[in-house]
Every structure is written in C-alpha cells, then in structure tokens.
Specification:
Elements lengths: L9 H20 L10 H15 L7 H7 L4
Length: 72
C-alpha cells in the first residue's frame, strides 16, 4: 500500500526518515554491537530487570539518583 508524503503526519515522516538513515548507516559501517559479547552476569541482570518491570516495579526516581550521586 503506497502512502503519499502529503498524507503522513510529521511524526510518521520523521519515523520513516530515521529508520531509513539508521538502515543506511548500518549498511555502510556495519552494526557496532555485532562483535559485542553478552556476559552471563549481564544477561541475568537484564532478565531480572525485565521481570521486575513486568511486575510493575520501577527503578529509583531521577531526583533521588541525582542527589545520591551529588550531581546537584
């Protein structure tokens, strides 16, 4: 199904352009993450975070992290 640019919203056009640019960059330069190896520790941490978010748990509030790290 062909859609004319004139019929798209600005967000739809931005999405198409962004996707196209990303695909072209990967085509030209390769995927920078392709050679990375996910360690077992990282994989387990990501799985724990995924489960926590699925249960509705959230991380720390930004204000709390900023204060804790002394970024204010």
């Amino acid at each position: 199904m062909a859609t004319r640019v004139a019929q798209m919203t600005a967000d739809e056009l931005k999405e198409i352009i962004g996707t196209t640019v990303e695909q072209k960059l990967i085509e030209l330069f390769g995927d920078p993450d392709e050679v990375l190896v996910m360690t077992k520790t990282l994989r387990n941490r990501l799985l724990r975070q995924k489960k926590a978010v699925a249960k509705g748990e959230r991380g720390e509030l930004l204000d709390v992290v900023v204060t804790r790290l002394g970024l204010v």
